[in-house]
Design a protein that fits this description.
Mean pLDDT: 85
Largest sheet: 7 strands, antiparallel
Number of domains: 2
Strand order of the largest sheet: 7-10-11-5-6-13-12
Shape: elongated
Radius of gyration: 24 Å
Strand content: 15-25%
CATH architecture of the largest domain: Roll
Oligomer: single chain
Length: about 260
């Protein structure tokens, strides 16, 4: 809810304060709380102002920047320059929109696959690899593909985690043979955790991250960003093409940038 969206714009016109327009509102006003009257498309977000006959619209973020207003999105207090009724109603609308999006995502978690862009910290611009994974892809399969493009070996422990956890991993996932060697049952075998398990633990979605740490003594840090979310059938299409760089039964490296 903190970021202004493209759905809402500021209408520059007459008056002591400007108003916010919902550009996604029905043009005929049939789904509107407030009548927009003249002034072009969209719906004014309050019933206390009149539309300008020849309005100028600017993005909320652009308006805030132009007036040197702290950019905390709709979570901040109402700026003096903007109608407080519009601001309050917009904040509520954005919150409802986010809740609906979160509910939709929650229903899909555990049933979808991902394109994961893996990078090493400090070399992220020079080299990366995109790995597509199904919900049933195990971390063991993912690990085999990660090791194909890195210089990682089995002389030191490597562990997978969420976000930027690295050594503070809440997953504690080790490759199977390293799990056996570690002899510590607080860890989890990579073959016993799937992408769906990780996704449900982290509510994994577009833009989220996973982490990998190699060598607990002098650690190297790797991470991935979820670049796309796929239905399993879409990943099947990837696996069935001749364009994959290398693959397992349920996952594949599909794109790469190398120095």
């Amino acid at each position: 809810m903190s970021e202004p969206t493209d759905r809402f714009v500021i209408e520059i016109g007459s008056g002591t304060v400007v108003h916010i327009i919902d550009m996604d509102a029905d043009q005929d006003g049939s789904n509107s709380r407030f009548s927009f009257g003249i002034g072009g498309p969209g719906e004014v977000m309050c019933s206390h102002g009149n539309r300008h006959p020849r309005p100028q619209h600017v993005a909320v973020s652009e308006f805030l920047a132009h007036h040197d207003i702290d950019k905390d999105g709709f979570d901040r207090d109402t700026p003096d320059e903007i109608c407080s009724y519009c601001w309050s109603n917009t904040r509520e609308a954005v919150g409802n929109e986010q809740n609906e999006a979160d509910d939709d995502i929650s229903e899909q978690i555990g049933t979808v696959g991902y394109r994961l862009r893996w990078k090493q910290k400090g070399r992220a611009r020079d080299e990366w690899y995109d790995i597509v994974v199904k919900p049933k892809t195990t971390v063991a399969e993912l690990d085999r593909l990660v090791c194909r493009f890195t210089t990682l070996d089995d002389f030191h422990l490597r562990m997978y985690g969420l976000e930027d956890e690295y050594l503070e991993s809440s997953l504690n996932v080790l490759p199977d043979h390293q799990y056996e060697e570690a002899g510590d049952r607080s860890y989890t075998r990579a073959s016993e955790m799937t992408t769906a398990d990780v996704a449900e633990r982290a509510t994994l979605w577009d833009g989220d991250r996973l982490s990998l740490v190699y060598d607990f003594g002098t650690p190297s840090h790797y991470y991935c960003i979820v670049k796309e979310v796929y239905e399993p059938a879409e990943i099947d299409e990837f696996l069935e093409t001749d364009n994959v760089i290398t693959s397992t039964d349920t996952a594949a490296i599909v794109r790469e940038k190398r120095p």
